[in-house]
User: Fold this.
Amino acid sequence: DPATDRRGAGMNETTVETAVEAAVDGAHFRAGFAALGGRPNVGKSTLLNALVGEKISIVTPRPQTTRHRITGLVNRPGVQLAFVDTPGLHDGGKRALNRAMNRAAAGALIDADVVVFVVEALRWGPEDEAVMQRIRDSGRPAIAVVSKVDTARPRERLLPFIEALAARHAFRAIVPVSATRRDNLEPLISAITAELPESPQLFDEQDRTDRDLRFRITEIIREKLTLELNQEVPYGIAVEIEKMAEEPMDSGGTRQLIHAVIWVDREGQKPIVIGARGERLKRVGSSARRDIIALLGQRCHLELWVKVRENWADNAQALRSLGLE
Assistant:
């Protein structure tokens, strides 16, 4: 059964079960960082959200949607796992933004207690190999996740794919998963737990992420923009909150007032984002507002402005101000 096959991974079921049982018994609390590494658009953010049980990292079909290191927290009896979602490691990006994203991803691999290498089922290419080499160079223990197994066709190719992956590196475990269906996530958590050091909790148990509300709101807006714009404005967009405050409503109670700026890097992109008669920006705002209300648990008033910051993705100062460096 490919869902439980770990041949060539350097770890057996007894090792995992012993480590997990010890943590559950309270003999040795474990906590640590597991960096999710892989090429762009391989399913890292979807996996993070499935593991945490809520939307921490935005997801779109576009490669390189994730720009920051984002930590999602999973607590189990005797263990706390801090999963670090990273930008997809990629070649060919010559802008300062691309270099910053690659630095963030590479740094996360080095800092992690264990690397979770995410590879798409039945797909292996030069970018996967490049990430694999970075993982080898990091010297960190690695667990491979074969993602999107529910879409793998033909199914009979899955086991040979896993066997070929096991031959590429001495993975501590290889775990096929379907994040969208939440299939096989607990075996993955168990395998990672076995690699974590004994440690007290790193974060408060009620926390789900290391990112604050302002950051999560900007990411929601950027997700809706990316989905709406498709290929029209590739990567020249950033979002920044200028004001966030609670205000009273005439009908009683309060709501969050949020003023956000959408930065584009060329004047010609501004009308594309706004759309004819402002309709596109209204759709983005309406869609983002629904998710923000769900995140905050209260009503909000969202105002969006589109402004130009020429070539911000090649400007180190602009990247720092946007939290990208």
Summary: Strands lie at 30-37, 70-76, 79-85, 114-120, 142-147, 173-176, 237-248, 254-264, 300-308. The chain is about 35% helix and 20% strand.
